[in-house]
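seq/struct pair 1
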Amino acid sequence: MSDRIEKRIELKAPVLRVWKALTDYQQFGEWFRVNLDGPFVAGQVARGHMTYPGYEHLKWEAVVQAIEPEHLFSYTWHPYAVDPNFDYSKEPPTLVEFRLEKTAKGTLLLLTESGFDKIPIARRDEALRKNDGGWTQQIKNIEAHLEKHP
């Protein structure tokens, strides 16, 4: 079994525009479907509430790991943490990385979520499967966001 999810998409937008969609907390919230409490700051916890239909009851929380302008944005979080009565804080988080590369037509977005091998075996397969499907949708969401807001 793999310990990671990898997605890639070439977006028809300049690197700076994609960077803003990823790191401006309001734009991130719009395409990711989360209402964040404030800006992303390296080394700090970002919090909010999901606005994605069916998941509105969930809190969203991540620890921002890196903000390297126009290149890398990363955070750690607890994957597929959908049971509001379960304390996921005792589990190791996974690492989500968004890497940007300039292309002739725009920007290549490389998304990786790694560390699933450290998730407890009882929920590892489901977390990997659900997040893989979630990232497939989120890649579509950011692409649509950039088309709607060039």
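seq/struct pair 2
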Amino acid sequence: MQSVVVIGTGGTIAGAAARPQDHIGYTAGALGIDALIAAVPALQDQPLEAETLARIDSCDIDHATWVALARRAAWHLARPEVAGVVVTHGTDTLEETAYFLHRTVRAAKPLVLTAAMRPATALSADGPQNLLDAVTLAREPGARGVLAVLAGRVHAGADLRKLHGYRVDTFSSGDAGAVALFEDGCVRTFRHWPNEALHRADVFGSDPAGWPLVDIVTSHAGARGAVIDALAAAGAAGIVIAGTGNGSVHASLRAAAERAQAAGVRVLRSSRCLLGGVVGTTPGALPSAGPLTPVQARIELLLDLLAERA
């Protein structure tokens, strides 16, 4: 049997609290990946390789960690003796890491992310089942691409989004719907696995410390264009506006965005709504990010700017 490589990056799934009933007051990334695997009896007789890349709270994820993770995942996926790779991660930025990996790693095998909403010390920790499902998915015949499995649902990395800050069943694939479900330990598919050919490897030859600065600004009642002016003055190379509704932007932000564009800053207009994105085109409107969420649009714009530098 081929092995599955499990890469740990920290997060709630590796979190520990002083009391089993604590679901919030815990330290993320307190446990190493070996401890997570040891907590799942069904994994003990399986050929696994484990390595800890980081032990951080995913709200603190940075570009250097993304690049290191992408490189390690790509290296392991290229090994013939490896069936797939599993990444344990925090939930806060899971959708960002999933989209980044989707766009930078050619995954002809499964590259599966998983996480948990409750720490490993909780009475009803969700991490062990999620980890077991992730390893099972990494061995699923025909599976490929960047995937995420949580609460029995399999999502494409390109579609993932977090909907709730506390519930265990918090992730969605938006309008696309789940790729598959776990039923009694078996995978039931609903649509095709993600296309592994959608990749941008520009990042591997660059130093993340020198990447272009790309920020997100939210449009809201009483929004001030001074925010965009300040970001442009501080060196932003790109700005994503999380617009209201179908990507509408407050007049003050729109005027500031046009000033930023005139100064050479790239601007994309997305929607702060987690479903739907920006539909259609409006004459004279700022450039649209289409169906991408604000954080996905930020990554896409970052990759575009890196490609322009290459």
